[in-house]
User: What shape does this take?
Amino acid sequence: MPYRSDPADMALHGVRVLGFPTTSRVAERFGAACTEWQVRPTRLDAMALNDHTDWRWDERVLRTLASVEISFKDLCRQLADRLARFDGYADRYSSALSKAVAGQREWVDAPDRDSCHILWIQFHEDLLATLGIPRGSDT
Assistant: This one.
């Protein structure tokens, strides 16, 4: 897609080129980790809710979320270099993850705070709106 030499158009083009393919890879890992945080299959129920009594299971999920954090920070930095409004998402994610790792597990997915999950939803919605992609058509 040709774009004018307007800095805003160039920034948006950079977000288009960088944003969606990279975000899709990070989103896949993040989504899998969130599913594992919320669902822990048992022998009798493949969709059993995670009661968070299996410390090893939860720690493994937290390690995955920490791995996602590295990619998410890099992605946000690159996006923020093009459009400033993407600055701050990574710091907020890191803050939520730090609290979860420190034992405040609600910071992974609680809907009433800037949890890792809420942060990802906000970031993803912002990116879709920036790229003009209707919600739900990105899957």
About this structure: Confidence is low (pLDDT under 50) at residues 1-8. The radius of gyration is 17 Å. The chain has one domain: 7-131.
